[in-house]
């Protein structure tokens, strides 16, 4: 589980460096959705 979250953080940094601040909110909402789906699949 922690490995998945670490990968998400690295992916987030990569997207942030590529896209910049303008798309940060959409990236964050996407990650929240992914984490929500992972949480539901585990529990």
Features:
43 residues, mainly alpha, membrane, transmembrane, transmembrane helix
Mind explaining what this structure looks like?
The protein has one domain (2-42). The chain has 43 residues and is mostly helical. Helix 1 packs antiparallel against helix 2 (24-42). The longest helix is centred in the last third of the chain and has 19 residues, at 24-42. The protein starts with a helix and ends with a helix. It has helices at residues 2-19, 24-42.
Short description:
This protein has 43 residues and is mostly helical. The protein is built from two helices and no strands.
What portion of the residues fall into strands of 2 or more residues? under 5%
Poorly predicted spans: none
Spatial shape: flat
Terminus-to-terminus distance: 12 Å
Number of domains: 1
The largest β sheet comes out as: none
Looking at the chains present, what oligomeric state does this protein adopt? single chain
Helix proportion: over 70%
Could you tell me the number of beta strands?
Answer: 0
Radius of gyration: 11 Å
The structural class is: mainly alpha
Counted by DSSP, the helix tally is 2
Order of helices and strands: HH
Provide mean pLDDT, rounded: 77
